Amino acid sequence: MADPLRVWAPRARQVDLQLADERLSMRPAGGGWFEAPGPLAAGTDYRFRLDRAEPLPDPRSPWQPEGPQGPSRTLDHAAFPWSDGRWPGLRLADAVIYELHVGTFSPTGTFAGVVGGIDHLLQLGVTAVELMPVNEFSGRRNWGYDGVDLYAPHHAYGGPDGLKALVDALHGRGLAAILDVVYNHLGPIGNYLDRYGPYFTDRYRTPWGSAVNLDGPDSDEVRAFFIDNALMWLRDYHLDGVRLDAVHAIVDTSATHFLEELRARVAALEREDGRRRVVIAESDLNDPRLVREASIGGFGLDAQWSDDFHHALHALLTGERTGYYQDFGRLEDLARAFRQGYVFDGRYSAFRRRRHGRSPAGLPASCFCGYLQNHDQVGNRADGSRISSLIGADRVKIGAALVLTAPFIPVLFMGEEWGASTPFPFFTDHQDPEVAKAARRGRLAELASGGWDPAAAPDPQDPATFARARLRWEELDLPPHSEVLRWYRALIHLRHRIPALRDGRFDQVEVRYDEDAGWLTLRRGPVFLACNLGDREHRLQAPSGTMVLACGGAEVESGRLVLPPDALALFA
Amino acid sequence: MADPLRVWAPRARQVDLQLADERLSMRPAGGGWFEAPGPLAAGTDYRFRLDRAEPLPDPRSPWQPEGPQGPSRTLDHAAFPWSDGRWPGLRLADAVIYELHVGTFSPTGTFAGVVGGIDHLLQLGVTAVELMPVNEFSGRRNWGYDGVDLYAPHHAYGGPDGLKALVDALHGRGLAAILDVVYNHLGPIGNYLDRYGPYFTDRYRTPWGSAVNLDGPDSDEVRAFFIDNALMWLRDYHLDGVRLDAVHAIVDTSATHFLEELRARVAALEREDGRRRVVIAESDLNDPRLVREASIGGFGLDAQWSDDFHHALHALLTGERTGYYQDFGRLEDLARAFRQGYVFDGRYSAFRRRRHGRSPAGLPASCFCGYLQNHDQVGNRADGSRISSLIGADRVKIGAALVLTAPFIPVLFMGEEWGASTPFPFFTDHQDPEVAKAARRGRLAELASGGWDPAAAPDPQDPATFARARLRWEELDLPPHSEVLRWYRALIHLRHRIPALRDGRFDQVEVRYDEDAGWLTLRRGPVFLACNLGDREHRLQAPSGTMVLACGGAEVESGRLVLPPDALALFA
Question: B215, A354: Cβ pair inside 8 Å?
Fold first, then answer.
């Protein structure tokens, strides 16, 4: 038996429940909440009318079958026939995460399309899928960070049942599912939250619009709105974790930070149902507080993305120094990332024009996610080009090897594993020409400030821009893609086979390098990796063990390991 | 030998040093700094010209002999003949702090005038003077929170030498000196900082104007500007501590918060010169992080003002429920403050319309300052009336006794000790009619939002408003003031005599009360206090010890302590 609909509308004097052919008066239920007179059958379309104004979708709508502007539809979460009762849960320390965008991963661009890729993911060896945001957004094409209707999986992706079927299928095949959620702002179209209550504040600004009101008057219910959202995904959709977008834009001066409260509530859910969950942050703060335990003043999050590691690696591999890459480019930076996660631990950043970060001393490496690319690092380039289109195949292989032998939790971005030829440019389908224009303008300004040439950026609104981003699965078995894929598979399977590669202790990482010569070696237990990013051959004493992977012409010659430029050898 | 003048002006291409009859070109010294060609003699007037615009005072001007709009003047801090070499420093745990406003404390309204009050302070028994902000402000009359020229003691108060002479005199008589500093915004007139560099940001808002840029581009030098300011007061003016105004309006999302960095730099100074300092925060956050040690994620501040304790006490004594007092009024609130400092430890606040604060478990009571009144609690009432004009003398005595036997660091507001008849209304002397008008408008709106009747507020710009605030020392020896003064002296001397009253451990505080009957008892070691805030007589078993203080007709009758309404008895 479903509960009656409830909605928080603290400014409204009257709230009506608008059905297809009926309007019901909702009764005030205290604290700004209004409650419908009785439950509705699952699958009923409805809207709310505040003080006789135009009917609006439910802020907590579980389903928007016609998109953000259409009616909300009731949903009975308990009705889904889950089959994942034996799913043991995600073990983050052992994870290899695969980030994907539902709309471009498969030919259909749906949740069901992702199910079709599970065989590939299993062969690749990843253990968790991380979905870019799937909640409703305006139009048919969007990365997902301009979303609204935070509780409603996008109707064109397959809606609530499609997402549940995907998670169930992943679990059934032994894969975990993590969802990217955006709690720092809402998209520009279909966001009716401010009609309902003080969800936003002008006390703080975000680069993308009004900041969320997490510490002003009536903020308890705003915090609950976002926290309940995370709990819904983890409970009703069986997701194994959430990845929080850009937490540096979540400003909260409360004594208990929103992120700490969120993690504590997730912990309570874990205790309640006995299943592990992870909360991972994308953070531009280099602040260890995020992942420290609450008992020592931390927020207790499980991990954070390490852009420092990415930037150090990317700048070395590509030689790029534009935008934030100007702070990187030395082997020393990469070594520092291997040794402590952050490159910026309080040092001056020329890009930021200030000191940045603080010492992460005491943090394990397993609370950082490492990647050679992700949707941002690919997509926030003017043309959305992947690293495989910027550098030679051997350098890509070196990058992949360093990510997959690093002490961090590796994250791959869909298609990376075969050096996909498809770019991942920024695309939108805003259903309002003014918003589309403003978004394009903002995009170009952002590119310019990041050091990119805005002229190289395709039109985000052009359907062709989206179409180009769609993965071409037919590449998979063709050279050179098939060769790249073999490399990734080998590395991932090595990581699973050798526990030392999943050892999350920084003090077990041995890294050596020669800045001028350009070589770097990494030892992790029985594994030894040597690579040459310089422009001259490098020779060193051959390590013990078997050379299990090599590229760029690396070979052992009478007890010496010979590394031509762009060569790598991995011994185990 | 003085160093050449330096100024940070990262946006300027050219900076000139403008002297009375000479203009010298300053040379770029890196990082946006410019340096004069050579040192100037102490006492030389100067200004800086950025890119040939109008000459401006030095942001770090040590002396503005003609106020914020006039020239800056060089100063040799080493030239002052200090005589406080044997000053042992402030021991906060034993302190009784006396907050005063230089302009209205004495007939002259100067630093020298404060020196004239030292005998009184010593007889009273306080151990530290806390000066409301003394840096330059526009006009002759200001509380000090609209200040500019953060490095320059107000010329009309007596300038740098006047302040040094005051601190030296205080130390010579065994009194510590704490200075109130405002790092959350600057005043509206004479603030040229934004001409020099990005001192401010629009990423955050404060109620009083632009927020300080503590985490954006070029913020390192902005942070240094404020931190160096605190260090200057503590080093060059021999101050024993700073009280940081409204730190809740200091927004900083850096991995190392400004306040943590500030306290760490003060600690370095303490190590350097072997003298203790204190950093006390006014905070509206109820966040234990402020005073926790840095090793467990805190900022390491020494203490914070406890508005919760004040509000609980004030609401009980006066029966007021307007504005923030609506959250208080029960003995339970006061007892909670006695037991843990915060009343709001995560509970819902009707005034704030959200949950507020978090558990202070583990914090000692000695990191809270307690007070019956302070400049804000008096002055932010429409008419600036002291509590002694709101309630009867016995209730005032009860309030004073609870503050001075509490486990917190007691703070008195000047004149409180004799129930001064003078109010302390908000006053200004803005030298710009537009600013004056805007300030008055803002003031009235603030009063209205706080539940006060704006019509009761005198004109802040009217010199008579200021004049009314000036203490009338002639009251001191007249009843009923002399009687109040005796009460305060007795309580303070008791506090000094009995170590248990200075015991900063919450678990050594025993508090009992009957909400309905209105009585409350407090035991602290050998001291027992009982008071009756109800409207009926209360009798309890007489405690052991001698009744050393009593008011309101409290007496012991055949083994029973009889407490009429508004009576208090203190046994030791």
Answer: yes
